[in-house]
Structure formats: C-alpha cells, structure tokens
Amino acid sequence: MTQPAIKDFLASEFDGFEVQIDADHERADMVLNRPPLNVIAMSQREVLRQVFEALDAHDDVRVIVLRAEGEHFSSGGDIKGFLEASPEHVSKLAWNVAAPARCEKPVIVANRGYTFGVGFELSLACDFRIASETTRYALPEQNLGQIPGSGGSARLQKIIGITRTKHMVMRAKRITGAQALEWGIATECVPDDQLEAATRSLVEELRRFSPLAQRTAKKLINDNEDSPLSVAIEMEGHCYSRLRSSNDFREGVEAFHAKRKAVFRGE
Predict the structure, then answer these.
(1) Which of 18, 121, 196, 236 is catalytic?
(2) What is the DSSP secondary-structure string of 87-135?
(3) Is residue 204 among the annotated active site residues?
C-alpha cells in the first residue's frame, strides 16, 4: 500500500475504535471507544489487525499506542458474536489478536479498569503494558464453558509460568495492576491519573532510539523466545554484526564521542 493509500485508510471511520496520528511526536493511537465497557466485536478484530499493519507501514509513525476511552480498557469480546461466527472466522482470531507482536514498531498498551478476555489477550501481544492501579486483568472464559482462544493462556504462561497461569485461567481469577507488575505482566503500574503521562513518557523515551535498532531488538527477542540458548546467542551475534554497518550505529558512536544528542534516521 502506498503512503497516500495508508493515510486514506487510517482516516476511515472504524467500528468500536478510532485512530489518531500525531506526526509531530511520531505517535499513533488506536483508541477503543465503545462505551461503557469497550466490548470488542468479532468483526472488529480483523480490522484492528489491518490498522496495526497500516500503522506499521506509516512513515510518520515511530511508536503505536493502544488505549481506550472511559474507565475500562475492555471487558472482552461480544459473547453473542461467538455463537454467530463461522468456524473460518473463529480460526483467524488468534492471528488477528497477535498483530501487535508482529508489528516491527514498538507497541504500548495503556490499561485501566476491566481488561478481560480478548482485551487482555490484545494487551499481552503488545511490547509494553502500562497498568493503572485500577486495572483488573482476567481471562474469564471458564465462566462460559470455554478457554482463551486468542493466545491468552499461551502468552501468559510464557510470562508468569504454569502455576500462576492455571490460577488465572482455570479459576478465572482477576489480578490487580500492582499484582501484574509484581508477576512480570505489567511494565509499570501507576496511579490512574498518571496513566496518560506515563504513556507519553514511554513514547518519548522510545523515540530517542534508533528505529532500526528498535525493530531489530523486538524481532530478535520475539523470535528467540522459543530458541535454545545457543541458537539465541548466535542470532544475537548476527543481528549485532548487521547493525554495526548501519548509519544509525555510526551516528550513535559519533554523537557519543562528540557529547551531543544522536539523530537516528532508521538507516
């Protein structure tokens, strides 16, 4: 898709969310806006994936933020929609929800209030989770005679281990933002009135770095999650060697010696 086509697509009206581009700060926000609980419809998930892909290709965007209007991030999916969806549509749910992880750019999610079901699964696919103290995380599918279907239990087990994952999934237990920080789910946990400021601060922090180094680090870390240690170390060495020939690395070294701020261009 060309840049004009990407911008035209992102200017569309979307069901259940909107897109905001702040080119001056190289930031894009995807804002869930189906009050009061920001329920995520079945059809919405595929469009969310398409928007993540478009933002990943947008020249004016360095960092993507997923957030929501109101006091709750999302209570989860449209329960009735599960009964109406075709098997083919359901089979693509995990792929659509994993879109933030596939983005080359860093993705931040700002959570507050209910962050349940697919809302939690989307958050787990992001790189950085900033939780308000009001956040309650849960995978409540057992209450419906189901299990998480979009990567929730799988991603969670990688982060917190089998015992705590069984506690959350098999008992449908909720945990607080503070507990999520303690368990390694959340990157930060802040008072609710500081959530936007903490998100903005992280966006500005990530913008300081080389886009090329950021993309390389994200892909390397994600790809190495299931690799043996020896393979992971070898892949890290290959990526390090490639970055040594980049203009951004040269700029970083020269800026360090000149005691000035580096200007990275992603080359």
Answers:
(1) 121
(2) HHHHHTHHHHHTHHHH-SS-EEEEE-SEEEHHHHHHHHTSSEEEEETT-
(3) no
